[in-house]
Structures are given as structure tokens and as C-alpha cells.
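Allow me, if you will, to draw on your knowledge of protein folds for a short while. Thank you for your consideration; the sequence and its C-alpha cells are set out here:
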Amino acid sequence: MELSSLHRARYGYQPKLPEILREPAADVFVETGHGTRAVSDHEELCALFKHSYGKPPVRFVKGRNEKAGGVLNVGVILSGGQAPGGHNVIAGLFDGLKKGNPASKLYGFLGGPSGLIEGKYIDITAALVDQYRNTGGFDMIGSGRTKIETPEQFAASLETAQRLKLNAVVIIGGDDSNTNAALLAEYFIDKGSGVQVIGCPKTIDGDLKHQYIEASFGFDTAVKTYGELIGNIARDANSAKKYWHFIKLMGRAASHIALEAALQTHPNICFISEEIEAKGLSLSQLVEQICGAVIKRAENNENFGVILIPEGLVEFIPEVKTLISELNDIMAHYKSEFEGIRSFQAHCAWLEKKLSRPSLVLFESFPEEIAKQLLLDRDPHGNVQVSRIETEKLLMHLTEKKLISMKVSGAYNGKFAAIGHFFGYEGRSAFPSNFDADYCYSLGFSAFFLIAFGLTGYISSICNLSAPAREWVAGGIPITMLMNMEQRKGKRKPVIKKALVDLNGAPFRAFAALRDELALKTCFKYPGAIQYFGPPEICDTTTITLLLERGG
């Protein structure tokens, strides 16, 4: 294929590493901390992870490790949704293995965890890696969402690992994928296989965070990509001065993307799902908040604005959350009966006898297209797929409806025209920023050292991320340290606890201090495109969120 100039230039970019990871493999030693506990549910998790629970965090320091020069066979998996930088994790792992011993081999399992189960893989060679360095996407080996959870799947995974004589498997993924990594590590130990399992923290949503995991990779690039798009729309709005733009952003469980985008671009309104839930704000209160800003700005002859909406907002609004919960239960309990109904009108008539009165009234108040989206096929957990609910259009509809009634009463005399957007896939496979290129490469290199020290059930960790890359601190932490127990499909299961927006944290407080002014005045900021070449303070800087969290 013909490559762009940027593509060719990015191939040549040499990611920066922490000082310790530049040392010869045999000159790096591991320093261990104290034993650890899970986020909660200590006893249950200790019983589930008999062999791997409570291990200490580790960091790499100068010292001697004679084992580092041994030949290693390692398999790598990309799991879950794409995130910028995944290829650089593989590149860092590959370069680390070859640095340890040129005879070491790296196998890429195709299509996610199913590749390990089914034994579908390719040899990852220097020529192959060089085609994907510093590029976006997961197309080197593909990804998938298969979970390794049945006895047969675990046994098949072990059979594949033993057939390839693997020393370790590296799973690059989010919270569910790394939970799977911990379970696989425990299984391999229990079977006495000697196969190690290491995880790497990936998700653009930014909700895989911890004291030792300051950021999940891909978040930096994704929010900078969205920031550019939002800034472009804000500038267009300020030029045309006639549209309100309702922009939905990725982030089902947490609002980190929306918060960072707000700090970057200064929209008129940005809803934070965690705050909505904490305050118990109703859908009508959110609409009133939007209308208040629309009216005030109209008084200044500014009939335009920008509103940011997290993807998962609807699940945090109390009455909508109740409605969705009722629908999930009804559709699970009466599955065959529901599926036998063909028309939307018939579905509505059927639901009249099943929904509680408040939920029925709310459901009937929604535009038909939104109500239909609430009835779409459920995800594997039996829950509504919120990414398919056009929350931005729901808020546009309800806002317009309320403003029309206010015009009739004389409370509003402005003009309101709205446009909806959803920015999601645009950010998942972008060329990684310099920060993500460096961070991911370091995560892969760190994963190699974790393997070289014989560790398993660990997730690669790079800390001190607000400093220059040479000052980053490399190591790893036990995955069980991130876990709690949650109800899934009627059973309590171990999962990595999602990190939500901290309403007492510096990033949210910085946004909260601005928002009254932003609602009334046009204070848009225009971040522009991601910069790859130029001064470090422009090209290598990370997110505002991380800088604020680190006291920058």
C-alpha cells in the first residue's frame, strides 16, 4: 500500500524509555514492596486466587539478573476495543525480548483471546513489527472480546501454550481483559505449567486507573483527537452563531473523556455522569440546566453553544436508570414472549402491563427513535447497549420541547437550532500521540522484564508519567490488587474495579470552578491537531487530567 508522509515519518520515530529500561537486560534487578490486598472483598478473592493473591508490587532498579539472557517464547494477545498505541506495546515487548536474547520468539494470537483458545497465531518478526511501529489500530494481529471462562477454554489455552512451549502470555486489554489475565495466571499456576501471564492496561475510557497505573494507554491520544474535533465545532459555532451542538463522547461507566475534553475545549455545558448520580439529578433538571444556559446566552444574542455528554449518562439519571433496569429484567424474564412481538406499537402495548407507572410515563415521553433504541438487543451481560442510545438526540428533543413551551409563555424569545454528534470510533485507532507511543513502548518493555523475573499475574506499570519519559518509574503490580467482587449474570465474580471520576479530585474541581462562567460566556479553546514534531512542551505533553492529578 502507498504510505503517507506522516506514516513513513512515524515509522522512524524512536519511542523514549525510562532510564532503567535502557540498561542491558542483565543489569536490571527487581525491588519488591510489601504484600497487597484487593480493593475490597479480600477473603473471597484470596480464596479464588490461592496461588497469586497478595503479591507485592515491584519496580525495576539497577542490579544483576543472570536469568535475563535466557531464551524466551512469549505469546501476545490484543483484547477488547482498539486503543491508540497497542502496536507499540507489541513493539516494546518484541524489542525487549530480542534485547534479552536474539533467539527469543514472540507469537501473536489472532483475533483476541480466541486465538489462544483455538491455537491461531503468527510468528511476529522484525519485518512485521517494523510495519506497525507508532501506528494506530490493532490490525497487526486483530482483537476480539472472547472471554476465557469455561473449563474447556482454560484447558485449550493451556494446551496451546504448552504446544508452543511458551514461557509467558501477555494480554493487552482493559479491566475485563486483565481480570481474564489474572484468572488465566491462577489456572496456569494451579496446573503447574510454569506459563506466566502478564497484563497491560488499555482503554481509551480512562477508567483503568490506580496509584500504580496513572493512565490507561490510548486515553491521551483519544481525548486529544476528540479535543481537536470539539474545538473545530466550537469555532464553527462561534463563526456561524446559530447552532447548539450536542456532542456525545465515549465513556459508559466513567466520564473521564468528557471531563478531559471539557478542560481542553471549555464548552458551555459538560455533564459528568458521576456527579449526576451523586446529586440524584433528574432528566428534567438536566434539561432545565440546558434551557437556562440557552436563555441566558440568547439574551446576549448568542443563540449557539456546545454541550458535552458522556456515552453512559442515561444510566446515571435515577429515573432513566430505573426504567432501563426494569426493561432489562422484563426482556430477560419474558425473552421468548418479547421476541415474538413484531411491531414497535405492539411492544409498547405489551410494556404497558409490565412497566411500573413512573417508568411507563417516562418511556412514553421519549421520541419513538429513542424508545426503540431502549428495546434493542442486550449485550452479553443482559444490559442495554448504551452506546446505541442517542442520548444527544434525546436531550435535544426535550430541550426544544421545553423551549417551545417557554416561548408560548413569553419566558424565552431566542432562536434554538440543534445538531447532534457522537465521537467514538474516531479516537480509537488514531496515530498515537508521542506520549502514548512512548508510554506503550515502555509498557511492552516492562512486560518483558516482568517475564524475565519469572513473575505472573502482574500488570505492567509505568509511573511518574507527568515527568519526562527518562524519569518514568517502571515495574508491575499484582492484578488482584485492582479487584473487587461484582454481580454478573446472577453470580458474584472477580472483576477489576472501574475508576470513576473523583468529584473531590483536582481535575473535576478545576472544571467545576469554570463552568458557571462557561455556561454564559463564549470561552471556547481550540486545541488543534495532535503535534508529533517540534518542542517537547508541545509534542510530548500529556493530558490536563494527568497533570492536575500529579500536581502539575
In short: The first strand starts at residue 28 and ends at 32. Residues 5-218+432-488 form a domain with the Rossmann fold fold (CATH 3.40.50.450). The two ends are 43 Å apart (CA to CA). The chain has two domains: 5-218+432-488, 220-427+505-549.
